[in-house]
Specification:
The complex is a heterodimer of chains A (286) and B (315). By secondary structure, chain A is mainly α. Chain A has twelve helices and no strands. Chain A has two domains: 1-52, no CATH class; 54-281, MetI-like (MetI-like fold, Orthogonal Bundle), CATH 1.10.3720. With 315 residues, chain B is of the alpha/beta class. Chain B is built from ten helices and nine strands. Chain B has helices at 47-55, 87-105, 110-115, 138-146, 153-166, 182-195, 212-228, 240-246, 281-294, 299-314, and strands at residues 6-15, 24-32, 36-40, 62-67, 124-125, 201-204, 233-237, 249-254, 257-263. In chain B, the strands form two sheets. Chain B has a six-stranded mixed sheet, with helices on both faces. In chain B, a hairpin with an 8-residue loop joins β1 and β2. In chain B, α9 runs antiparallel to α10. Chain B is globular and about 50 Å long. The chains are: A mainly alpha (286), B alpha/beta (315). At the A-B interface, α8, α9 and α12 of A face α3, α4 and α5 of B.
């Protein structure tokens, strides 16, 4: 019991400690930091410690940002960029992975290209994408699709390629149609597909923010953070960073829930019977 | 035997996983109607590859495979005397009969039309138990096998309960394959193959990984079923006892070919206690010799293995 309490309390206590230290350092001991910086001779001249906003300053600035609507608008735009890219990447990536698995011709021609492209840092393509798709959301979404698509395609391909070669034949021999065989195969690699989805979502969020930050006028959290830097309103930068983290966590939770729901519904559809999900809290059989 | 109507046969069947290596080197096999054939031989000789070719998982390089178009109901009994047949076998046959009625009465809704073909099902039980889907529980794995043939949820659930009882898996019905022991997993795969009212049993090493008691119980159950209904099958094994207790005909498989075919003209039920008796001895000796000669162990060591096995047979 004590162990469980300490497990659940450990993270909040640690975060609280970090916040207290951060507050103390930022609020009262900036000169101390300068002394330490100088003594270590890391990178003189010392940076402008104004960038280190304290947690209370960030907290105080947040209501105004929310009231202006700038933060919510930025959050909404980044979410839209990220989700559009993610969905398009899935719509293209999953059939592409399937084609790579089932066709030797596709595998021999396209797979080396996909592997080659995945080695290119997607950000380097941003200038070209800005020229091709303009300075608005198009270039940001294209950049996010590029990163997410390659990641999703490769993970889905690996998952399906390593499926037992007799699996499809076995399911078909039981009297299942081609569609059902494909759905069973997806169900069999659902764990790997979930990993692909997480990777794809991570890439689409990262690249959406990067795209918004550099060159584009699409708005979003990237542009919001950058505007804070340009205006030397550093609390805004921190608010933007925290909003990115919160968005990432929320999307991850939503994705996990969606993956579990799809998996459950797929099983119910294929089996044609109520699916008794294992209890999360669990009553194990002894 | 040639003139009898066959369930499955193949002629000059050849297969190789690559052009340089031929695994099957002209297999000729005729399984007489209603018979259970055992393909017996050493590991790595291509027995499982032959089964996969017969089931359509692999495409042969050359040769011909023929499945008879016989569509009669295998649950049509071949006996009026049910006295020697076990209760579980009678129950399972009852379920199969109801499943057969389901097939003829089935109304195909949109979901069923999308998902199921309505073909007669068959399931090859693989030696590595990969039939059991890792993402499903034991119960759901049986539901997966039954879903295409049974639209009636009540009947399906009754069949699942019966199959779990027959295979002694009731306690682990909610567990996933990776949580089961080797023997339990094997029994689950066998239950899946029995669930679908199969036209042909196709089992790869059905008794591999089972303890002696479970092995004989399973053999007894199959004997029970086969004494009541026409249930043809092909089994691959290198277990002499399983072969002798179940087979109507034994195909001795050597280096990608069927070297010899032997009929087992011993009436059912066959008991493990009788295996040392005079009825089985000649065939048993021949099978052990066949394995010993095939194993490539020559000279004194080979002679020692053979002698010790022979001594076991004779005692």
């Amino acid at each position: 019991m004590i162990d469980r309490k300490s497990k659940y309390l450990g993270t909040p206590l640690f975060l609280l400690a970090i916040l207290i230290i951060w507050q103390a350092v930022a609020f009262g001991h900036r000169p101390l930091l300068e002394v330490i910086w100088g003594a270590m001779a890391l990178a003189p001249p010392a940076p402008d410690w104004k960038f280190l906003s304290s947690p209370l300053e960030i907290l105080a600035a947040t209501p105004q940002e929310l009231k202006d609507g700038a933060l919510t608008q930025a959050l909404g735009r980044t979410t839209a960029h990220c989700l559009i890219a993610f969905i398009i990447a899935w719509i293209v990536g999953l059939p592409l992975a399937r084609a790579l698995v089932s066709s030797r011709l596709w595998r021999h021609t396209l797979l080396p290209v996909v592997h080659g492209l995945s080695g290119i840092p997607p950000v380097t393509l941003l200038p070209l994408l800005l020229i091709a798709f303009g300075l608005d959301s198009g270039s940001v979404i294209a950049l996010a699709i590029f990163g997410a698509l390659l990641s999703i395609t490769l993970v889905c391909y690996e998952a399906q390629a390593h499926l037992n070669s007799d699996f499809g034949g076995m399911i078909a021999n039981l009297g299942y149609s081609r569609l059902a065989v494909w759905l069973w195969e997806l169900s069999a690699v659902s764990g790997e597909l979930h990993t692909a989805a997480r990777e794809g979502l991570r890439w689409s969020l990262i690249l959406s923010v990067v795209g918004e930050m550099h060159g584009s006028v699409a708005g979003g959290l990237g542009a919001y953070v950058d505007s804070g830097r340009l205006n030397q309103n550093y609390a805004v930068v921190y608010i933007g960073v925290i909003a990115c983290g919160a968005l990432s966590a929320a999307l991850k939770v939503a994705l996990d829930w969606a993956a579990y729901s799809i998996h459950t519904l797929l099983k119910r559809f294929l089996l044609g019977a109520p699916f008794h999900s294992p209890s999360i809290i669990g009553t194990s059989t002894v | 035997m040639e003139s009898e109507r066959c369930v499955v046969s193949c002629k000059n069947l050849e297969f190789g996983y690559n052009p340089e290596t031929r695994v099957l080197k002209g297999v000729n096999l005729i399984l007489p109607e209603g018979a259970l054939g055992v393909i017996f031989g050493k590991s790595g000789d291509g027995k499982t590859t032959l089964l996969k070719c017969l089931m359509g998982y692999l495409t042969p390089t050359s040769g011909m495979i023929e499945w008879s178009a016989k569509e009669d109901d295998p649950t049509a009994t071949q006996t009026d005397d049910w006295s020697g047949v076990g209760d579980r076998a009678i129950q399972l046959i009852g379920v199969w009969r109801e499943l057969s009625k389901q097939k003829t009465n089935r109304r195909m809704g949109l979901r069923r039309r999308l998902l199921y073909t309505g073909r007669n099902p068959s399931l090859m039980v693989f030696a590595d138990s990969s039939n059991a889907l890792p993402q499903l529980t034991a119960e759901e794995n049986l539901r997966m096998a039954l879903a295409p043939v049974c639209a009636d949820v009540t009947l399906r659930e009754r069949a699942i309960s019966l199959l779990l009882e027959i295979t002694d898996l009731e306690k682990v019905r909610s567990q996933k394959p990776q949580q089961l022991s080797t023997g339990q997993l094997r029994r689950l795969c066998l239950a899946q193959s029995l669930a679908v009212n199969p036209r042909l049993l196709v089992w790869d090493e059905p008794t591999g990984g089972l303890d002696s008691a479970t092995k004989y119980e399973l053999i007894r159950f199959i004997q029970d079923l086969r004494s009541a209904v026409r249930l043809p099958g092909i089994i691959v094994t290198h277990d002499v006892e399983t072969a002798l207790l179940l087979a109507d005909v034994i195909f001795l498989f050597d280096d990608g070919r069927i070297a010899k075919t032997r009929s087992v003209d011993i009436p059912f039920p066959r008991s493990p206690q009788d295996l040392d008796g005079p009825g089985y001895r000649p065939l048993r000796v021949e099978m052990i010799r066949f394995l010993a000669s095939e194993s490539g162990v020559t000279g004194q060591a080979g002679a020692t293995i053979e002698t010790s096995e022979m001594r076991k047979v004779s005692t």
